[in-house]
Amino acid sequence: MSRPVSRDTQKRGCVRAPHLDILWLPRAAMKSVEGDPSDCVLVVGVSRPKMALGILTIMLLSLFLTFHMIYDTAINSLQSNTADHSRPPLILLSRRLYPSAARRLPQAIIIGVRKCGTRALLEMLYLHPMVQKAAGEVHFFDRDDNYNKGLEWYRMQMPHSYPGQITIEKSPSYFVTPEVPERIRAMNASVKLLLIVREPVTRAISDYAQLRANAATASPVVPPSASKSFEQLVLHPNGSINEAYRPLSISIYHHYLHRWLEVFPREQILVVNGDLLIEDPVSQIQKIESFLGLEPRIGTHNFYFNETKGFYCLRNETSDRCLKETKGRKHPRVNPRVLSKLRKYFGEHNQKFYELIGEEMGWPEE
């Protein structure tokens, strides 16, 4: 309660603060045994409930906004700085206001092709705030030992995401494995598929360079094929094309795309030009944002050209980074006559691929 302050109280040095419903009392009035008579005690009263309710409301609103800011800062920091998405963000407030993060099956998959820029594409898409990515290649649909573990195992390999975000994974061997299209459709018939391709001969050379580098580091005993040049592996001694050489066979894209188009409609597969992704990443990423139904967010401000590496690196609000050293590996020099022969060989195959996708890629045939 509140009472007016007596003159006696004022004489003892206890003054009521103006405009506030409080009471200052001397300790003598509280029957203290001893003490300075000017020593006062503050007693808070509630004679104006509407004012008190307003103050309390403002205090609670301030606390709520403070928690809101702390929560958003923590979530943004976690999403931008944590490469391993194995743990969900802490949910500090109501789930009605902040729906919980969960592991979800992917709504989009980069199905290949190997050595065409699948990792670069995934990292570029991850610049978008509405995209979450699996940390590594999951190999669920192309490896029986993983596929037999079931969809729940697969889901647990995905990052945590919020409703409205798109989860993406990439495993380049999906494209060339016969069982994969049917298995993916059984998981999600409406999943969106990204197929990134490069000029076939360039892709084959890149594949050769990686296989050779891997063989040199994997074992002290280098296999005979690892010591052979690209020319020796792609041509038989009589000069004919070695069609059985794996880096060449994977570059015959139409052989594998047929299977996918038997299972999925063409509009569910976006073909990404990997050569243009290297030269002009923004144009390709903008096509993918549209295909995935994402708000355009990735632009020229997200890329910078690294003169030392010779390709574009990534930039977000907090840092700049390039792909690891094994990406963008330098290609060996190949005999121009062999290059010309291979491009003529792929000319017919390329035309069949163009017919399947309904567009020309402009790859050289000489």
Quickly describe the structure.
The protein is 39% helix and 13% strand. It contains 13 helices and 12 strands. It has helices at residues 7-11, 49-81, 118-125, 144-147, 151-156, 180-187, 200-218, 230-234, 246-250, 253-263, 274-279, 281-292, 336-357, and strands at 22-26, 40-44, 102-103, 108-112, 131-133, 160-161, 166-170, 192-197, 269-273, 303-306, 311-315, 320-321.
Tally of helical runs: 13
Strand content: 5-15%
Helical content (DSSP H or I, runs of 4+): 25-40%
Over all CA atoms, what is the radius of gyration? Answer: 33 Å
Distance between the termini: 97 Å
What does this structure look like?
With 366 residues, the protein is α/β, with parallel strands linked by helices. Helices cover 39% and strands 13% of the residues. The protein contains 13 helices and twelve strands. It has helices spanning 7-11, 49-81, 118-125, 144-147, 151-156, 180-187, 200-218, 230-234, 246-250, 253-263, 274-279, 281-292, 336-357, and strands at 22-26, 40-44, 102-103, 108-112, 131-133, 160-161, 166-170, 192-197, 269-273, 303-306, 311-315, 320-321. Strands 5-7-4-8-9 form a five-stranded parallel β-sheet. A hairpin with a 4-residue loop joins strand 11 and strand 12 (320-321). The protein is elongated, with a radius of gyration of 33 Å. It starts with 6 loop residues before the first helix and ends in a 9-residue tail after the last helix. Residues 9-13 and 79-98 have low confidence and may be disordered.
